[in-house]
Amino acid sequence: VQENHQQASEEAQSFGTFEAWIGGSSHPAESGETFETRDPVVDEPILSVPRCDEVDVDAAVEAAQDAFENEWGNATPAERSEALLEWVSVLRDNIEELAILESLDVGKPLSYAKGEVNKGIDFIEYYANICRAEGGKEIAAANDAHIYTRREPYGVVGCVTPWNYPLVLTSWKIGPALAAGNAVVLKPAEQSPLTALRIAELSEGVLPDGVFNVVPGFGQEAGAPLTGHSDVQKVSFTGEDVTGEEVMKSAASNITPVTLELGGKSPFVVFPDADIEQAAETVAGSITYNTGQSCDACSRALVHEDVRDEFVEKLVEEMESHTIGDTLAEGTTFGPLVSEAQYEKVTSYLELGVEEGATLATGGNAVEAEGTDDGWFVEPAVFVDADNDMRIAQEEIFGPVETVITFSDYDEAIELANDVEFGLAAGVATENGSLAHRAAADIDAGSVWVNKFYGRTVTGSPFGGFKRSGMGRECSRDTLNAYTQEKTVHVPI
Ligand code: NAD
Hints:
Elements: H1 2-13, E1 20-22, E2 25-27, E3 34-39, E4 44-50, H2 54-70, H3 77-93, H4 95-106, H5 110-130, E5 138-139, E6 145-153, E7 156-160, H6 166-179, E8 183-187, H7 194-201, E9 212-214, H8 219-227, E10 234-238, H9 241-252, E11 258-261, E12 266-270, H10 276-288, E13 298-304, H11 308-319, H12 340-356, E14 359-362, E15 381-384, H13 391-394, E16 401-407, H14 410-418, E17 422-423, E18 425-429, H15 433-442, E19 447-450, E20 466-467, E21 470-471, H16 479-482, E22 484-492
Parallel strand pairs: 7-8, 7-10, 8-9, 10-11, 12-13, 12-18, 13-16, 15-16, 18-19
Antiparallel strand pairs: 1-2, 3-4, 5-6, 6-22, 11-21, 14-15, 17-20
The chain binds nicotinamide-adenine-dinucleotide.
Residues 160-164, 169, 187, 189-190, 218-220, 223-224, 227, 238-240, 243, 246-247, 261-264, 295, 396, 398, 424, 465, 470 line the site of nicotinamide-adenine-dinucleotide (NAD).
């Protein structure tokens, strides 16, 4: 494993320069500082990238502003669409290489990384296509005037992304932002900046210089100067709720509108008439995909007391069925946590759950994947005998840890489902169609899935949160409007 990963890292270094991408070319940080991005399977560095700060952010925002004013902001939707579709085609030609970078950076099984890279490119393509058909509207408000609206891009959009789905989450922002006619400055997560840097390099000669800029670095040093920048006209952030608060405050100083995609503690409600086997498979799939490091992972299974034993038995079987190990090897279904910090966080919750009085039905141990004893691996875990007041049921663990809680009737199920600060996603398992619709209406969440849990990657389907899970929606047709401002024109006739 060590050798495989060392070889892959060396190969990755040859893919590009992995410098900051500003104004259409590669740059080191002005300070000359760098930081290492690490491979969590073997806990070894992959490569060094510039540690950008305020000075680099200023340069990137200026480059973006120039590109917006000189060319991109005045291009027609058809011209933007054409350029973006050409970029999409270049990205598609480089899927293998992008998947290796994504797999190494986050510790994802390579086949999953490939699927996600594909999805990310799909999102850019989707917005490149639909921007041709979007625009203002005619207002039928008066007989003596022609009143219509124009949808105009903001100018420079500042995007900040987390580490768990680097390319997909980047595409959710830059796809609509660029298609709508804005120029973008992106600050990727410090744990996994490689694919963002590489797709920027792959935009050379395809997108006008300065339209897309990437400044790798840390939150306080590069993220905060971007979200609080007075020349940034729109901020789009994905990350933790507490960081979202900071971002909103910094944007508030310039009255900059924000889109916030934040955390979750999503429930899956299993009614007694459900297909229990399928429900358990669904929960296990959701909480173990990407090693549980998904904002919308189904981390609370709310199960009717009559079917609890059957459900837990099947859930445990599913959680134990993973092939844990080398993410570059075929057949691996479960990789490590992204970093030592994430490992410490997840294992601290495993201890806390036991202290709080819950019982571990399976997992929770550190495991050594064959051939590497340095990776940040933990076994998928299931807590039973838990109640919803426990911290393991209220806080986002962001790891492969499921908490099972029982209920006895519909009202209790809905009360438990809604009794958290978050409201990103939820699921309902039942064979009764009207019960499914009723529960979907009663649960406070941005997405509710019936008899499944994961539909957000459908291009065009809105995704976003209620409550502390954020504001605004990504992935949908309407998202284009979030990256434009509406102007009303009145002409007397
Ligand atoms: P994080 O909030 O720690 O970091 C996210 C990004 O913000 C990083 O790029 C970081 O460098 C930057 N940042 C940190 N402090 C900042 C500041 N003061 N100003 C500006 N930028 C700053 O989150 P994370 O640990 O990278 O990601 C995990 C979190 O993201 C989880 O809570 C997860 O639920 C959430 N998430 C949400 C969605 C969604 O679509 N709702 C998707 C994926 C992840």
